[in-house]
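A.,

Following up on our hallway conversation. Structure tokens first:
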């Protein structure tokens, strides 16, 4: 399902889910930065650990979701 499909969903919870996931992603990034821990994400089927230092650099450049 793509973003356009979700935004047109009849279920209001489903319509709001993408925004909620983005908000949770930002909170996880902030928590990893505050605690100095890695953020673990799956990108292109591969598990990637992003160190807190890299998250700080991305935040400084205004770079968001991964």
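Then the amino acids I'd put at each of the 66 positions:
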């Amino acid at each position: 399902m793509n973003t356009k499909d979700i935004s047109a969903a009849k279920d209001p919870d489903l319509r709001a889910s993408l925004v909620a996931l983005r908000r949770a992603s930002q909170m996880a990034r902030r928590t990893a930065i505050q605690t100095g821990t890695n953020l673990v994400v799956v990108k292109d089927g591969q598990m990637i650990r992003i160190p807190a230092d890299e998250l700080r650099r991305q935040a400084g450049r205004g770079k968001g979701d991964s």
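The chain has one domain: 3-61. Curious whether your intuition agrees with the design.

B.
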